[in-house]
Write a structure and sequence with these properties.
The protein is of the alpha/beta class. The chain contains eight helices and 17 strands. It has two domains: 312 residues, Alpha/Beta hydrolase fold, catalytic domain (Rossmann fold, 3-Layer(aba) Sandwich), CATH 3.40.50; 38 residues. Helices cover 24% and strands 22% of the residues.
């Protein structure tokens, strides 16, 4: 993880966030924790100006060597625009221990209500819910590298708090940089052991990784998918090439609403933050994400295996908020009336 520090130094050397104005602005919260901040974390929050009550809450966690303010500016630079439009409160947590690297490995952080980073992050969420009357049924977390790993831990330890996770270039709960270190059942047990006896709802999971990642090696992608497919009881149903961008392969589990993977061919450790695929998967762009229905598919049966299957999409029309265009996109390009296919960027157009 130390290798990420040099990456961030170059990426964020000229950025200073707290005093920058974007209508609403990122603000540091100094009194959120008290005894609920056992590992002396730092909290920044972005609250949209026109925020109604019952807003969604999205926690974004930095990689090792980074910080919340770095992540707000350089890793998720456009996320505040979506937060303003869709009324999402953003929380950017920071840890200052161990080279600014989250504790995603200790027994305390993998247990409920202990003196730990995971407990501290949950108390940031509690602050937002309490202070802004946010919606406890719309709480999500995401992170890159070490931030992904602690997000996985949060999903395992507090499945009753978080409703979804988007994880970029990280590793499974109990991660190992040794390939084939556990079976899918054993990976699933790593999650179940974080909250023994829990039988309730589990968060939806979206996993991203690059096949040329030399920091968190590519097999970690397989481990994460094996882990969560076992926990959620899902198998691969189809894969789609060049989705959501060129040289990505999307792997869909079940009906695509609970578990999904994106594997970047020639992708390095940084795969890029993807606002609309993440927020759509969380159901924060108006409805749940649509997934391309293939005309023909070759099924993969091993959870967490490298995606290699190509699919071809059928015709038809896309519903409101769904994707309708972009480089590599193979789904419907016409929208259901009265919606129009609206250009967002070279990789994504949406029915609006």
């Amino acid at each position: 993880m130390v290798a990420v520090s040099s990456f961030l130094q170059g990426l964020t050397a000229t950025l200073s966030l707290v005093g920058t104005v974007y209508g609403a602005s990122l603000q540091q919260v100094s009194s959120w924790g008290g005894s609920g901040n056992p590992s002396t974390l730092r909290m920044h929050i972005y609250v949209p100006d026109n925020r109604p009550t019952r807003s969604a809450v999205l926690v974004v966690l930095h990689p090792c060597g980074g910080s919340g303010t770095d992540t707000f500016s350089s890793i998720t630079p456009n996320l505040r625009t979506y937060a303003d439009r869709y009324n999402i409160i953003l929380i950017y947590g920071s840890t200052v221990a161990g080279g600014n690297c989250w504790d995603f490995h200790s027994s305390n952080t993998k247990s409920r209500f202990q003196t730990s980073d995971s407990n501290g992050v949950v108390n940031m969420v509690n602050y937002a819910l309490r202070t802004y009357n946010a919606d406890p049924g719309k709480v999500f977390t995401s992170g890159f590298s070490g931030g992904c790993m602690i997000s996985n831990v949060l999903a395992a330890v507090y499945p009753d708090v978080f409703y979804g996770v988007a994880c970029f270039s990280g590793g499974a709960v109990g991660w190992s940089n040794t390939p084939n270190s556990r079976t899918a059942q054993q990976w699933g047990d790593q999650v179940r052991n974080c909250y023994p006896g829990y039988t309730g709802r589990r968060p939806k999971m979206q996993i991203w990784h690059g096949d040329k990642d030399t920091v968190t090696l590519p097999h970690n992608y397989n481990d994460e998918l094996a882990q969560w497919s076992n926990v959620l009881g899902l198998s691969v149903t189809r894969t789609v090439q060049n989705s959501p961008a060129n040289r990505f392969t999307q792997t869909i589990y079940g009906d695509g609403t609970q578990l999904m993977g994106y594997y970047s061919l020639d992708g390095q450790h940084w795969t890029g933050w993807r606002d609309e695929p993440v927020l759509s998967f969380f159901g924060l762009l108006g409805n749940s994400p649509s997934t391309t229905t293939p005309a023909a598919t070759t099924r993969t049966t091993t959870p967490g295996s490298n995606p290699t299957t190509t699919t071809a999409a059928t015709g038809g029309t896309a519903p409101q908020w769904a994707q309708c265009g972009g480089l590599g996109y193979t789904g419907p390009t016409a929208c259901q009336s009265p919606f129009k296919c609206t250009y967002s960027n070279p990789y994504y157009s949406q029915c609006l």
